[in-house]
Amino acid sequence: MPEQNGYVNIEHDHGISTITFFHPASNSLPGKILKDLAGAIDKEGQDERVKVIILRSAGEGAFCAGASFDELVAIENEAQGKEFFSGFANVINAMRKAHKFIIGRIHGKAVGGGVGLAAACDYALATEHAAVKLSELAVGIGPFVVGPAVERKLGVSCFSQLTMDATEWRSAEWAKKHALYAEVYNSTQELDDAIARLSDKLAHSNPAAMQELKQVFWTGTEHWDKLLAERAAMSGRLVLSTFTREAIAKFKTGRK
Question: Which end of the chain, N or C, is more open, meaning fewer C-beta atoms within 10 Å of its C-beta?
Fold first, then answer.
């Protein structure tokens, strides 16, 4: 698999499916990886042999840096913009529709869409290095697509704090306090040990009961197919603005 372009990989082990994504730019998410990730989650989420899914990224740095800036600046019209941001919508919708519980392994910082991925997990475990930030407003857009998942998990108040204070990190402990993370560990070894214990328990639990519980957990989100498509169109329009073009260029060149 060509690591220079990133990848999505699936591994199976006694009813546990581990989906790993990677991109050399701090695990950012270009359209191809978003498409592959949504497809992998949908496939594993419907597979009767799979009892539980672990979602993780590769490497030791960031868990996920969010949207690919290279692809954002390449967007030329609203249709392309909606298509790109629909990639995030498709991943979140695949996660909520999966028949399996999804455990998130958040080993490092999560930005923008990365926070959305963590929020859409049914149970997220993290290390103390897994700070979070919704940086979208700082580049002239907003966390419209991931917003419903973040708001559902953290509540309106915390979502608005993250959204408005878009340049500031919130610590992993802050994220745990506000229910984004179930637990925070001092090291990736402790994190992996905890995930192994939980996933093994779930792999030996009643699949039918877990599927019913999954539906209960996500009650009230049945309209998200339409909602997230509308949110993708919002972002697709805003990304074309002069403000956003200039802000992204500054971020890419390291200027303030």
Answer: C
